[in-house]
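Standup notes, protein team

Yesterday: finished cleaning the Noviherbaspirillum sedimenti set.
Today: DUF3999 family protein structure.
Blockers: none.

Input for DUF3999 family protein:
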Amino acid sequence: MRPFFLLPRALLRLSLLLLLLPALPAQAGNISFNLSITGDRLTLSNQGDSPAFAPRVLRLLDGGHWETLQPPAGEQAPRELKPQAQYQLTWPERAPPANTASPETLRPVMVRFFDQAGAGFGQISFFNQPQPASDDLTLDAGYVDGRLRIGSPKNPAIKATWLLWAQEEGIAALSGPVTATRPQPDALRIEWGPGSGAQNLDLGQGMPVAFLLHETAQGLRSQVVPTGRVQGRQQRTAWLNLAAQFRSAALVALLAGLALLAWHLGTRRKHSISTNP
């Protein structure tokens, strides 16, 4: 009698497991930050639900160079910034740029970090929010075949455009050999003139969000170019995207198990009838 009871019990466990499979979470965590400045201190807070590893904060200087901020003397940068944790850095005082069209006047900052999978990412924000570009100052810009394409302006009011982005390779870099981390490139200033053509730029395989700051007589105007990757899937490994196939295979296995159980019960009943007059 013991084998007869073991088989249905095992199939019951299998059935419960297969029913739970579709409910297992497969979403990557969220990492977002809050930044504040008090005197010569900048405070970085992890507002997400996942840790950020090796966080760095950079600020944009006049001329387009990204300066890495340092922790106060005697302190070390954290290897891991857990959710709701804070990290303080020094914010050295600088004289205001002479050129009012300098992007430094907006006080852009970039937070660079690694997620739990080891992929590097960056987020850009502005302490002085730029005014959005009006429709007549908006350029035709977007990702084409993995590269950012910026069309030349039709409005002569745009004399030049600053391009700010956080270099990202995303999870694509995890599939290849380990290489040295590529440094964050400087912001790029594109000068427009008669006959200027479209710009095609490589911002990394992660195709990050890009900020265009147009220089006009009225000041800088901001245009945001969305990421070129599929939202919500960049940080998902390949096997997580096969959830539908796994569920189909699990259903087939369950049906096969039920058929085996029915055959087993039928065979046992037939055997009982033939041995009992």
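Follow-up from PR in the comments: The first strand starts at residue 33 and ends at 38.
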